[in-house]
Amino acid sequence: MAVTSKRSKYFDNAKFVLIILVVFGHVISPLKEHDGVLYNIYSIIYLFHMPAFIFISGYFSKGYQNEGYYRKLIKKLILPYFIFQFIYSVFYYAIGKEASFQVDFLQPHWSLWFLLSMFFWNLLLIPFAKLKWLGLPVAIMIGIGAGYIDQLGSFLSLSRTAVFFPYFFAGYLISGPQLKGLLGGKYSRAVGITILIGAICLFGTSISQNTVPWLLGDSSYAAMGNEGVEAGFYRGVLYIITAMVVFGFLTLIPSIQFSFTEIGERTLYIYLFHGFIIKPVHSIIPKESFTSVTGSYLLLFGFSFIVCLLLGSYLVKKFTRPFVEPKLSFSGNSGK
User: How far is CA 315 from CA 189, 243, 310, in A?
Assistant: First the structure.
């Protein structure tokens, strides 16, 4: 498993698989209430797909002290956030999802929370990196403690920033040789497969009905119906389970070049644009037709796969790059 190359095929393959799961999860989200199998699939996907994405993002944030690093982040994350927050506001109003047109930059639309949180996670490296591995339990305690604060929620994605930061920080902390040794050990794949089978058996049952809200990371414990002190213990256990499943997933990713590998470089384009395809499709399908649609699992996955291939194409990147990667000049020499 090659994990140290400048443009790693391993990580591009992992990101491609993960972005398919992101899109598939969003495709089945409004359908899962009508099909128990889809609900269980949804819970399994959300158990690890964003934590794995965030872990990989943290792994590639090791240059946060480099000159111009945060200027690049503003161009890559903050500016696109403002652009797409406005575009989605127009889009939601146009398709009738919002009764009136309004733009609120403090409440990220749908998947745009990730851009804000990614920027905040990188900022958090400034104090946390000094703590090294001692900072990981601190990050976990902050993630657990965030659940007791009702006011966080989706405002500036603060709840998700706190809840998911341990995965990002763990990715930052682990080195290439350490990750290679962890995932490429003699029994790593066998252990990983065993963990995944166990997770599928566990979360492929009725337990998923109560777990999904916990996997989203955007609500307080009270909002999820658990106001007891033990709620923090539940999140701690979930951290452990999720970390194990992320490990299991990463052991299965190949390092060889596939025809779709390069799409792993363009996952941001897929992430930002897939809502403009999925949301209209959801609005077109009559609610009474949901029952027939939900049973077509392969069709739903195939649709998600095609959306990823389309939005991850070179042409889409070529014509939409000004929105996703806008050019912005900064004066001054400070990188932070």
Answer: 37, 36, 9
Tokens (6 digits) for 182: 């962890």
∠ at Cα 227 (137, 206), nearest 5°?
85
Using CA atoms, how far apart are residues 249 and 46, in angstroms rounded to an integer? 13
CB 150 within 8 A of CB 211: no
Q: Give the phi and the psi of residue 219 in degrees, each rounded to 5.
A: -130, 150
Q: Three-state SS for 68?
A: coil
For residues 51 and 248, the answer to whether their CB atoms sit within 8 Å is no
Specify the residue for token string 């390092």: 255
Nearest to 269, CA basis, from 277, 281, 280:
277
CA 63 to chain centre: 21
Any residues with CB less than 8 A from the CB of 135 and at least 6 apart, and which? Answer: 128, 129, 169, 173
Per-residue exposure over 150-181, b if at least 16 CB sit within 10 Å of its own CB, e if not = eebbeebbbbbbbbbbbbbbbbbbbeeeebbe
According to the model, what pLDDT value does residue 6 have? 46
Closest-CA residue to 143 (of 107, 169, 171) = 169
Contact between 84 and 78 under an 8 Å Cβ cutoff? The reply is: no
pLDDT tens digits for range 272-301 = 999 999 988 877 766 666 666 666 888 899
Q: Is residue 84 packed enough to be buried (19+ CB in 10 Å), middle (13-18) or exposed (0-12)?
A: buried
Tokens 């393959």 belong to which residue? Answer: 13
List C-alpha distances in Å: 220 to 138, 167, 279.
19, 19, 27
CB 262 within 8 A of CB 12: yes
Which band of pLDDT confidence, cut at 50, 70 and 90, is reported for residue 33?
A: confident
